[in-house]
Design goal:
The protein is an alpha/beta fold. It has a single domain, classed as Glutaredoxin. 35% of the residues lie in helices and 26% in strands. The protein has a 5-stranded mixed beta sheet. Strand 4 and strand 5 form a beta hairpin. The longest helix is centred in the middle third of the chain and has 16 residues.
Length: 102
């Protein structure tokens, strides 16, 4: 499954997905974000049971503020419309999958 670009226009439908949602808050200039990006892409390709979205904090400051993103990358997991996990900083694939499976 491909990664969805999330913005304020489609956020409501993403948030209310029947699948668990992984959101990657990033910026193009962020080195650690570029390290996490291929891992997030891999998770999206290998796990169709999840909805994976990316949110560029420079383009979507309202969403970054809503999730209280203070540093990037920040990864957030939403299940049944509720935020259940959030982690700032680069993470390994196993750590990201553990967040999704919590």
């Amino acid at each position: 499954m491909s990664i969805l670009t999330v913005n304020k226009e489609n956020f409501h439908s993403v948030k209310n997905s029947s699948k668990p949602v992984l959101l990657d808050f990033y910026a193009d200039w962020c080195g650690p974000c570029r390290m996490v990006a291929p891992i997030v892409n891999e998770i999206a390709e290998e796990n169709p049971q999840y909805l994976v979205g990316k949110i560029n904090v420079e383009n979507e400051p309202e969403l970054a503020q809503k999730f209280k993103v203070l540093s990037i990358p920040t990864l957030a997991v939403i299940k049944n419309g509720e935020l259940i996990k959030k982690a700032a900083g680069a993470r390994q694939k196993s750590e990201i999958l553990a967040m999704l499976n919590a």
